[in-house]
Hints:
Layout: H1 7-39, E1 40-41, E2 44-45, H2 58-95
Antiparallel strand pairs: 1-2
Amino acid sequence: MTPCPDDNSSRDLDQLHRAEITVAMNWVIRTCQDIVRDHSHRSFWTPTATPTGTTPTTDRLIHSARTDVLNKLRHQLDGAEAIITNAEHERAKRQH
């Protein structure tokens, strides 16, 4: 069994994890705000490269959904999830 870290390093690691999680979540929120600002009108998604007054093709909608919204969110969510998973793993190691 590995020795438990002293209280100071444990508190420092908890503080680091809280800071990392907060920053990651702020990036998720910021990404959502950017998507809303850049790709919506009155809270409704407006696909890019769709001429005004025309109906986009299904292929155009699929491409726009992925590039405008889903890929950007997935990137931030995957990063935030990795940070949280790492914090959980490190905390579990300390408790053993």
